[in-house]
Amino acid sequence: MTRFIHPNLSDVPLASVLHALSDPVRLKIVRALDQDRIAEGEGLACNCAAPEGLPRATVSNHFTVLRGAGLIEARKEGTKVIHRLRRPELDKRFPGLLDAVLNAAAAT
Amino acid sequence: MTRFIHPNLSDVPLASVLHALSDPVRLKIVRALDQDRIAEGEGLACNCAAPEGLPRATVSNHFTVLRGAGLIEARKEGTKVIHRLRRPELDKRFPGLLDAVLNAAAAT
DNA sequence: GCATATAGTTCAATAATCCCGAACTATAGA
DNA sequence: TCTATAGTTCGGGATTATTGAACTATATGC
What we know:
- Two copies of one chain form a homodimer.
- The first copy, chain A, has 108 residues and is an alpha+beta fold.
- Helix content of chain A is 54%, strand content 13%.
- Chain A has helices at residues 14-21, 24-38, 46-49, 56-68, 87-93, 97-107; strands at 44-45, 72-77, 80-85.
- Chain A has a three-stranded antiparallel sheet.
- The relative contact order of chain A is 0.21.
């Protein structure tokens, strides 16, 4: 089993972050994780953060893309993988970006 | 010759805008157009806004993507096609988004 | 008007990505 | 150990992206 790779955000190009956010499913995941963060939750498992009805392989790939772009962080807990938004780091690297995206996502 | 299609921004999903912005070449184009806007220019032709050395077909496609996402507006002037950022409309539809992206792009 | 130049677009074929079923791995509990 | 849960990985079909070549549209000179 892979140990999850979490890039240093300073190594992540803006285009990669935008690409990770440019998919409806991944946007939903990011929104769910932000909601969990606001509610001071413990993080969310894949199947909780993703829209229902999607094939597992597809969901897994979306999480890999989000991890690769430095947007989320994963840790294993029992059989589950728990995810968290890397909010503080993202805000530092790209100030206002996630706010604007989540804001826009909430409005639609 | 095609008449350019400029979608109503209220019809454009957030994911499409982010996808249009998620490419280094298109980011450069958007930045160049924003610089031109700040300088109160008349807009830029394809070959002025895009990085040099790219094949024409590729550049043309990138502009088509940007138009399709409602980010830019095109008009014909002689043999050229002049482009402008749809800044006010974008800011209204997705407040803060373009600012954050251009800001982030400028920092890198 | 006709040839030439400039500026993009469109077409078509190859290259790169994405999606998802099926098989696999890891952990927990009975 | 057997079964269930939660994801990951693999493979190949579907979708997108890239780009050379041919085409369209406008302008300028002869």
